[in-house]
């Protein structure tokens, strides 16, 4: 399947809503539209989508032409302990119907380029331990699981 990677626009919100649901984060479409609007206004972030491109999409590849087939959300964090920023990939999902066709790799590579453009020296990805296939994907692309070196703590506010 041919696809194109581009910055997200407000009109991509319905497709992003579907993808978030597939990832296990169901949300109201209006809520996602609000979130997308915030991301689009955030200068230290990038929200990228992959869309099905051309006639192949219409030929039964699983996603129609122009439809959002994947999304990646990146934020560039300022660091205090060193110069530069750290890119943090906060979401990466590809539509179930078109996984395994290189879309995830292309989105991640585009997110890495965006991170470099935002002054990032490295990239961080967090992923639930139950997402074993995703972990293998990240490892194949050069990411190392450093959980033995660094803990992650979360508290509701």
Architecture overview:
With 157 residues, the chain is of the alpha+beta class. It contains 5 helices and 5 strands. A 5-stranded mixed beta sheet has the order 1-2-3-4-5, sandwiched between helices. Helix 1 crosses helix 2 (29-41). The longest helix has 15 residues, at 103-117. The protein is globular and about 45 Å long.
Structural class: alpha+beta
What sequence of helices (H) and strands (E) makes up the elements? EHHEHEEHEH
The name of the CATH architecture is 3-Layer(aba) Sandwich
Q: Level of helix content?
A: 25-40%
Radius of gyration over all CA atoms, rounded: 16 Å
Domains counted in the coordinates: how many?
1
Tell me the CATH topology: Aminopeptidase
* Beta-strand fraction estimate: 25-35%
- Count of DSSP H/I helices: 5
Mean pLDDT: 88
CATH superfamily: Gcn5-related N-acetyltransferase (GNAT)
Number of beta strands: 5
Low-confidence stretches: 56-60
Helix/strand layout:
Blueprint: E1 3-7, H1 13-23, H2 29-41, E2 45-52, H3 54-58, E3 68-78, E4 85-94, H4 103-117, E5 120-125, H5 132-140
Parallel strand pairs: 4-5
Antiparallel strand pairs: 1-2, 2-3, 3-4
Helix pairs in contact: 1-2
Report a brief summary of the structure.
The chain is of the alpha+beta class. The protein is 34% helix and 25% strand.
